[in-house]
């Protein structure tokens, strides 16, 4: 049903239509609206049978999902940021055990300094945890990806993480066509586990594996991810047939077929970038966009295919590997190996900083005139950084940096007109 | 659900074997004999595992799980924390478990068990019950957050802690359950106060009682009848239940393998390890000490306390340990001479008169806990 609806609400209703049997809730912004809404559905009897469990930490949330999934239930939870990091040990465990848990991550920065706003640091921190990681561009896609996620997870016995930008998507009201129960039921079969704790057929799950087979077990995890590279586009295509709209897939291209400069990005900033590209195209500039919808498994061939014709590639990402640079950019560069395409990493939008069309246009201008460095921090206030560096050079006890910078910036509210 | 058999010491006549005090199965009517003495027992933790000789944990787990299997008529799932029990039982492709068994992580067994219980409920399989188990590290330290959450939600899980008072699997390091003065790899027997420091430690059975869950019990592997009975009792009720079993570790305690049962018995008989039951926040029964011994007898059998008795003995420290045991005996009313209706508040040596008078009017023997919802 097409409605003007909050992103979190759309996701909650869609997850509800997927008939999860065990849902764990631990509050952390900006995902709270999702689990609140699911909790209300369960309490009101609109989602049944379902056990909604308020746990004491994210570590417990993922652990409860592990137990529920191993006992044959469709398990779901949502988290963000610090919460995702607090559960990391269990995140790895879930994939290691091959349990098809689906989790929404309302992407948010990682502290310190504590910051509740959107970037992709949390998802990037668990990129090697063995989960499939899908990124939504819009709230419609965020909702739709959950239906696909349960299907994919359960087919392959791999957990799937649906990433949607915190606040930018979770708290935004826009038109979303939430899938009907009938549609979801037609698309998503009942969960048939590969392994289940059953007194009638007892198995030991979670045994110690030594050097004699550990690499092979890990290879199987990799193999399942490679299988997902085939299944993700197929499932997206089936989804399109059932629901009548396109969502998901490995990569998406926008006006990039004849582009010399192609921007690569993930998540909601693709919308802003597309608008800027439209404007630049209007001026005759050959600019296009490739959106990475599936980050794990990394769709190397699809990315290479979508970018092979470009003269230069600008990877704009809301994450940073301190001491190394971009994270998505490294994967994109590896996918383009041998093609001789100049690749730039642009770190942007950290901790919720807006990525404006103006900044973006200037960025493309610099790239087109070969003025762009291999690694750029978009809209970095260098004066602010230099003042702190000077303080640190001047005296040993220069104090906490974050607080020093904020003092320099001054009251944000004073600058609001 | 089957009836819980009468416990042997409720019988008018007590049966004791010389030396072990264990009631002899052959002297009991068939329905009161241990599950373990039954040829049809499940052997949930089957032979052939890799536990050390004399392992108290292997013994405790075998009795606990077989009793739970009997109580659930074989409809049970076990969740295991990382630790000795997990490592020695599942060197795959070998597994000693004859129950559906899941190991996830060190610190999350209570939450995993919650998940299993939730799944069984939602699947309409309420006949299948859940038992989670961990060592003391996985219970009192790294697993405590999840355990407290499971208790607080009153999830339908029996959690069994096999307490060997340290991190034995990683090479005998101190845990929150390591007793005062004990030598471990991280509390060396050096300096003025050799071994583990004195303090409260973490008394998990009392913390469990403070959660006011339906059932809490302590037990030792010296009285396996008692352990089985408590497991059966625990399985007869729903909600969060906790059993804390003292399981001596020959390796970590520096004791002879043959002395596992003896040491467990001395821990109880000295008062260092009170054996009791509690329901919904109130202590309802205590196992009286029948042959009280000094802590000296218990300590001397273990090289982890060897520094108290060697060339430079520390009678002062032994005396402090004795004082702790004496305090337990007063707090829990472990002495036969104690009037069980007049036991002191657990957290207060000098019982307030109000608490005592409140106790005195109670029909049941119990210990009043201080703090919110506890004593006056």
What do you see in this structure?
The complex is a heterodimer of chains A (417) and B (376). Helices cover 42% and strands 18% of the residues of chain A. With 417 residues, chain A is α/β, with parallel strands linked by helices. Chain A folds into three domains: 242 residues, 3-Layer(aba) Sandwich (Rossmann fold); 127 residues, Rossmann fold (3-Layer(aba) Sandwich); 29 residues, no CATH class. Chain A has a seven-stranded mixed β-sheet, with helices on both faces. A six-stranded mixed β-sheet of chain A has the order 10-12-11-14-15-16, sandwiched between helices. With 376 residues, chain B is of the alpha/beta class. An eight-stranded mixed β-sheet of chain B has the order 2-1-3-4-6-5-7-8, with helices on both faces. In chain B, helix 7 links the parallel strand 5 and strand 6. In chain B, helix 1 packs across helix 7 and helix 3 runs parallel beside helix 5. The two termini of chain B are 38 Å apart. Chains A and B meet through strand 3, helix 3, helix 5 and strand 9 of A and strand 1, strand 2, helix 3 and helix 5 of B.
- The global form of chain B is globular
* Total helical elements of chain A: 15
* Terminal CA distance of chain A: 39 Å
Domain count of chain B: 1
Largest interface: A-B, 42 and 44 residues
Could you give the distance between the termini of chain B?
Answer: 38 Å
Produce the secondary structure layout.
The complex is a heterodimer of chains A (417) and B (376).
Chain A: E1 2-6, H1 7-17, E2 22-25, H2 32-43, E3 51-54, H3 58-70, E4 75-79, H4 81-86, H5 88-96, E5 102-107, H6 121-125, E6 132-135, H7 139-156, E7 160-165, E8 173-177, H8 181-187, E9 204-205, H9 214-243, E10 251-254, E11 261-265, H10 269-282, E12 287-292, E13 294-296, H11 300-307, E14 312-317, H12 328-335, E15 342-347, H13 357-368, E16 375-377, H14 382-394, H15 401-409
Chain B: H1 56-71, E1 76-80, H2 84-89, E2 101-103, H3 109-122, E3 129-135, H4 136-141, H5 144-153, E4 158-163, H6 204-210, E5 215-220, H7 224-235, E6 241-246, H8 250-253, H9 260-269, E7 276-279, E8 282-286, H10 295-299, H11 315-332, H12 353-360
Parallel strand pairs in B: 1-2, 1-3, 3-4, 4-6, 5-6
Antiparallel strand pairs in B: 5-7, 7-8
Helix pairs in contact in B: 1-7, 3-5
